[in-house]
Design a protein that fits this description.
This protein has 367 residues and is mainly alpha-helical. It is 65% helix and 0% strand. The longest helix has 17 residues. About 3% of the residues have low confidence.
Length: 367
């Protein structure tokens, strides 16, 4: 019902201010948008085809701009906001903008935080303060215990405060907790993957059930990433990935075992998986069991990580500077800073060109 009312309001505003005129009124609109709102001429011209500002009624729009500037919004901020949602110029200052901005400031979103929150999605001004914005903020603060976490979540899902949180987010969070996911993990999910937990409730429940059927429970470390993958991947794509792995010698049980250990690998493209398997099995001569046990191997870049390290280690072994029995697969997992220090910088005197070789391989992907 609220969504329908919102759509009707926006539609009526659009009809009220719609204009395809290229006459004096349109010229005034372009001039107003450029001079008062800081838009480029091209952007102003584009908006003027849909929105008309009457010379006699410009004061309303000027009040909006003055109000925004009084709260520290720069010309660039206003241009960006009007460019995205020009109808903001017709919002009432006293009846709409002021009470909502004051509430956000009272909730701790002042200064730059206010600017970031509003710029992320100015549509917040189209939602009711009492029936939507306040309950949304209250709900978010149950799990996101700082405004920085709320802003971090909004950076990944700009519609966080304008979407109907009751129909999806709240239901999904309640369901996850009921299924046994800890509050801390729910918080982490809302911050790092808000789009995952904002999916339609029915689809979300199906995905949770699918993950559990695969043998991954909410209390297990892999659950959140498994849920993310299942929500993003269609059933035909899942089946295709299983077929790809079968063609590379894995059974379905092998693939599921690897998925339980690190679900994210299965979201890789079929081409990347094939290239990775070929490199590990044929160049590094690893056993498939090693990849099943540590599927994150497949997520490393062949060109910028695997080939450069392989080239360096091959030279070091040939010069007998490291043991030929050194287990290469664990050297691949080493972080970049440590690998560079222990296997490149350390041997620059013995092999003067080793840094160039390492960086050159990383740059062009040669092997």
């Amino acid at each position: 019902m609220a969504k329908a009312v919102g759509r009707d309001l926006i539609s009526s505003l659009q009809k009220r201010f719609l204009s395809t005129s290229t006459g004096p009124s349109s010229s005034f609109t372009v001039d107003f948008l450029v001079r008062t709102c800081g838009l480029s001429s091209d952007s102003a011209l584009s908006i003027s085809k849909k929105l008309q500002i009457d010379r006699d009624k410009q004061n309303q729009s000027r009040r909006v701009v003055r109000f925004l500037k009084s709260h520290g919004f720069s010309d660039t901020h206003i241009a960006k906001m009007v460019g995205k949602h020009p109808l903001i110029l017709y919002c009432g200052v006293e009846s709409n903008l002021k009470p909502k901005v004051e509430f956000l400031i009272q909730s701790g979103f002042g200064g730059k935080d206010l600017h970031e929150l509003v710029l992320a999605n100015p549509k917040i001004f189209w939602r009711s303060l009492n029936s939507h914005i306040k309950p949304s903020v209250d709900f978010l603060k149950l799990y996101l215990d700082s405004n920085e976490k709320i802003l971090s979540s909004m950076r990944r899902a700009s519609w966080l405060l304008s979407a109907d949180f009751r129909s999806s987010l709240q239901k999904n969070v309640d369901f996850l907790i009921k299924e046994g996911l800890s509050v801390q993990k729910v918080t982490n999910l809302m911050v790092s993957q808000p789009r995952t937990v904002m999916r339609k409730h029915e689809k979300f429940v199906d995905a949770v059930n699918d993950v559990e059927k695969l043998g991954i429970e909410p209390r297990q470390p892999a659950f959140v990433n498994a849920l993310r993958v299942i929500l993003q991947m269609s059933r035909p794509t899942w089946k295709m990935k299983m077929e790809v792995m079968k063609s590379l010698g894995w059974s379905e049980e092998d693939s599921l075992m690897a998925f339980k250990r690190d679900p994210l690998w299965i979201a890789l493209s079929a081409e990347k998986i094939r290239r990775g398997m070929d490199f590990y099995l044929n160049t590094l001569e690893l056993e498939s069991e090693s990849i099943i046990a540590y599927p994150k191997f497949l997520m490393y870049s062949i060109d910028t990580r695997l080939v450069p390290r392989y080239n360096v280690l091959k030279v070091l072994k040939s010069k007998k500077l490291i043991s030929p029995d050194r287990d290469i697969k664990w050297l691949i997992t080493m972080n970049e800073k440590t690998f560079l220090q222990k296997f490149v910088i350390k041997f620059q005197k013995e092999i003067p060109g080793i840094m160039d070789m390492y960086c050159g391989s990383a740059a062009d992907g040669t092997g």
